[in-house]
Amino acid sequence: MRRLLPTVLLPALLAALWLLPQPPAAAQGEHKIYLPVLASPARTLVASYLGGPGADSVSATDFDQTGQLLLAGRWAAGPIGGVVAANLPGGEGAVVRLDPTGRAVSSAARIGGAVRDMEASASGGVVACGDFGVAVLRADLGATSWSATPGPVERCAIGAGGTVAALVGKTIYRYGPDGAAAGNWEVAGSGVADIALDDASGLVFATGYSQKSANLKVAFLRAYAADGALRWTAYDFANDATLAAGLTADSEGRRVAVGADGKLYFAGFADGGNAIYGRDPRDIARPLGGAELIKFDAYNDPYNISGAKSLAWYGRFEPASGALLRGQWLLTRLSDGKGNSISIKAIDAAADGSVAIAGDSAFALPGRTSMSLAGIALGAYELGEPYLLVVSPDLTARRIWTALAATGTTAGSSPATGVAIRGGLVALGATLAPRTAAPARGLVTTPDAPQPSNASPSADEGYYLLLQAP
User: Has residue 397 got a pLDDT over 60?
Assistant: First the structure.
């Protein structure tokens, strides 16, 4: 995490321009000049493991209607954080609520073998899904309001009014607030990665990719009416049009969410910088302008990339029309300045449009070798380490971008898979992967963490981080 310099130094710092390494195109007389980007310090409320001696994991993170943190995933048999969970019924799958301080479990519910996804509604219900199907839990997690068994559900979403959508394979199932089945339809394409739901517009959104040819995947983002009728589509360009535009990098839609600001947020993957995300999602012939595609430094400008690199892209869309409002690339940089890989596994937005992102990365985030969190020096980099990113509403400044490895450890192969930002708070959920060889793996914890150490070094361990949003 970058920290603000003393105010007295800011005028001199802002007067200095930062010239970053340039891509080959700059040799034609083009020079890219960037101002340094300063991130505000964020107050870490709590960072802690959550789990017992068995294998535990966190798959999803959200805030309930009262602002308390919810975590979902899998916890080994027994109490969770000292609390005996309600049996809804279930095995090791669970949804857990923390108290307002984030330092104690206030309630928990066990349902299924593992909860793969979870989302809270402004009306109080909490939808959870997994091998057991889909269920809406009561706000206190003490019972289910209703449940359905369309098959093993990978992703689920709930609207402000309680409408629910569930994804089984490539089929979306829609349910009314009372659990009544309201239709289902198959999403065209080669793979569907995620869904979201907006009761305000009555739309269900899906993202994934289509295999347009043997050598080209193209991402799609689609909106469907309540009856499954296609309302609009973004990206999903034809093979010939994509190749003619020279945009030959594979792309996939990975995550989609409706933020607290009512806008639609999309996160995608690209196998290199020459991908479709630099074009209007509804018109491949039109390059995005500077007010739409926001670039301010080397970590959101995909140049100087060689070899196979997995880059990320995210954007804010108008839900009713599919119009892109703003978007941005995301990548890391090697010590020699070459672009490197990063993935987005969760995205959310606050009421003011601040964007929170989580996932895993390759070397390295900016300032990674001297990074600290909550005043604690972070451990060394390892491939696939989790990160948290919070970006300003206009996407012109990163307010926090941090890794999470504990001092003296690494945190590889341990992606952050849940993120939420609401009411001045931002939360992250992750799963620490085990490793028996040195150095040990670990995630940073605060001194007053309810579980400051990993209870199962030889198995997966659940983890969460709660911050005041900067």
Answer: yes
